[in-house]
């Protein structure tokens, strides 16, 4: 499968967001495995690199000073403090702009706050909300992790309710009943919204 430039019209920015525990990362991993030529934005982050992570592939790992410089220079479309300020992450503008200017699609995975910031920065972006099949399924996933305290789980659930209530702000909703099906539906949206810019998809 490959994408190639069809003309000089701009590509489409597809923004994926959803509540904590809905499986955004799993859907994106599946999409990467299914269609490795589809381009994903790599976030810049100040957190430490974890074993197995590749700089420039999983994240762009930068120092706090470098992140400050990027913010001051307007190089990030959106950024936020994560986990009460333990680190910061953001979406670099230049790689996305280069992709869109070439007439090709770009996909970004962010949280609700990030999606709102991207909509303000780039009103033409197409926002996709990844939704759980039911509230009970989301609760089971968050509680079933067993890696967090009851207080943190409760906070995540409160946040998830707020995020679910915001899905009407999005242009499309994909229900993650099955990771493979959700990835296929997301790809269909990418192709539908970018078909005018794509010459081939094989």
From TrEMBL:
Binding site for ATP: 18-25
One matching Pfam family: Guanylate_kin
Keywords: ATP-binding, Cytoplasm, Kinase, Nucleotide-binding, Transferase
Keyword Signal recorded: no
GO molecular function: ATP binding; GMP kinase activity
Domain of life, source organism: Bacteria
InterPro entries, per the entry: GK/Ca_channel_bsu, Guanylate_kin-like_dom, Guanylate_kinase, Guanylate_kinase_CS, P-loop_NTPase
Subcellular localization(s) per the UniProt record: Cytoplasm
Family: Belongs to the guanylate kinase family.
PANTHER family in UniProt: GUANYLATE KINASE, GUANYLATE KINASE-RELATED
Function: Essential for recycling GMP and indirectly, cGMP.
Protein name, as recorded: Guanylate kinase
Gene that this sequence comes from: gmk
